Amino acid sequence: MSNQVPSFFESVQRNFDKAAKHTGLPKGLLEQIKVCNAVYQMRFPVKIGNDYQVIEAYRVQHSHHRLPTKGGIRYSMHVNQDEVMALAALMTYKCAIVDVPFGGAKGGLKISPRDYTPKQLEKITRRYTAELIRKNFIGPGIDVPAPDYGTGAREMAWIADTYQTMRHGEIDGAACVTGKPVSQNGIRGREEATGRGVYYGIREFFSFKEDLKPLGLTPGLAGKTMVIQGLGNVGSFTGTISQKEGDVKVIAVAEYEGAVYSENGIDVEKLLKFRKDTGSIVGFPGTKTLPKREDALELECDILVPAALENVIHAGNADRIKAKIIGEAANGPISADAEEILLKKGIVIIPDMYLNAGGVTVSYFEWLKNLSHMRFGRMEKRFNHNTYDNLVNMVEGMTGKTVGVQERIFLTRGADEVDLVRSGLEETMVTAYQQIREVSKRKKGINDFRTAAFVSALNKIASDYMTLGIFP
Fold this sequence. Notes:
The chain is 45% helix and 15% strand. The protein contains 16 helices and 12 strands. Strand 3 (69-75), helix 3 and strand 4 form a beta-alpha-beta unit. Helix 6 (193-205) packs across helix 8.
């Protein structure tokens, strides 16, 4: 037996095959769902300084059962076609799980953002966008990119501007990409969305007493220990929100420069500030530095949150993982071989295709906002405020008592856009988890949440195909 780690795409396909056996769907339909519908591999030159560089880039549309397709764009030297295909496939299943009406897609450029100035990155991003436009691989009703590893709101603003320049006058042009700055037709709550979704998903798992009992855990997140691997956008928001709203105790954090540990807990917000000031998490007061950054993965804890890149937990280290629960905040952080080892050890895995779906959920809200040309809450916020204010006045009149100023503000405020976004995200994550859990309880032979999540997704996608009449 080979000790070679299966590729990311191979891991996704193996997980698909494992779940497909539990669906009872026709073989041809399963094959159609499984394959990538369109793969665009490109090379284009960009002048950097006095030289020309040929940039390797991709855009993969995995499934057209619903349009537009949806998925982020990552900038990384690890980008290759296999990775982008795997990520696009996960996006299809992810959208189905959380009932977001998109097909899956993904993009990637084989570059390290650290090697370029902002002006050079802008030139590369705009050229990549132009290539997508020429091949009809981007558009509000065709394919809608978003941020991913190595990209953010800045890059999405460049993409939107390039699209609207080349498609001048297209009324829904702003909806060609999501994750834009709020001032550039973005939506409040998008930056925190994936991390907040991770928190909601883990919190929902901890609400079922009977599922926690075999792990020796009690309901609720308060006091539970957490280790976070990766302190980028997802890891940082997962940590800060889990601490502020769930009273979780973060005992270790691992990043590119090293890993720090404290049995008394680490304030993630202060750690982020320390890293911004010093350029490293190493040396944060009250912590000790672990010999290797990978050691953080092997610490004893209730919840391990890998929030960086794929395959960080593999057959070579899976047997040393001591966490009771792994919440996959990153895409594909556990290889297929490692998963078999972890499940045999009784470790519960909350899968990426569900847990990090907060990003695409709020991207969907942004897309809807762009198509409606109006921010959420604009129509009803003031009406709700006045209604609640009148109710408080009535209660005061009937009781003869007066509500304090701060209490009145709390009771009468109408919902802002971010309040509605968070409410919609919470509803989405809670409902999706309950659907996955129901599948895991109802279907015999399913002993892990990833397979249950796949089965849930495949049944929904198959229903779409059958409704279209492609597979009667």
